[in-house]
Amino acid sequence: MLQGSCLCGAIRFETAAPPKGVSMCHCGQCRKQSGGLWSSAYVPERELHIEGAVKWFASSQTAKRGFCPTCGSFLFWKAHDEDTISFSLGAIDGPTGLTLEKHIFVADKGDYYDIADGVPQSDT
Questions:
Q1: InterPro entries this protein is in (predicted)?
Q2: In which band, very low, low, confident or very high, does the pLDDT at 9 lie, cut at 50, 70 and 90?
Q3: Residue 117, CB half-sphere, CA atoms under 13 Å: how many?
């Protein structure tokens, strides 16, 4: 069971489903919203249990981003046409037991850092 929360604790979430797609996103939207890059994994939406009033932002024609309206923590990413939901690995309480699988949207990464961990990289 993975459990997580926002910074102030107003939003809590948990899942018993095995997370997939453990990634670091370097896209411009994730960098602007998180202040850096965003680490996440996804599970079927029906398997992620959320408590609290998440505020959703329609960040594009294809997806929305969920955050805490009190502290601003960026917690979720949801494509409109998928039945999965991504959650922030940085918001997990305690160890995740997961291993990074890929870096995504590396063509958009900031010029102030290098990716040198040997993990596969993708421009999408």
A1: CENP-V/GFA, Mss4-like_sf
A2: very high
A3: 12
SS3 42: strand
pLDDT tens for residues 70-107? 999 999 999 999 999 999 999 999 999 999 999 999 99
Helix boundaries (H) for the chain? 28-34
Instruction: List the beta bridge partners of residue 24.
Output: 39, 103
Are the beta carbons of 65 and 57 closer than 8 angstroms?
Answer: yes
pLDDT computed for residue 91 by the predictor = 98
- Which residues does 106 contact at the CB level (< 8 Å), separation at least 6? 26, 115, 121, 122, 123
Hey, is 56 helix, strand or coil?
Answer: strand
> What domains lie within the chain, and their CATH numbers?
2-108 (2.170.150.70)
Tokens coding 95:
């160890």
Residue 78 and residue 63 in contact, taking contact as beta carbons nearer than 8 Å:
yes
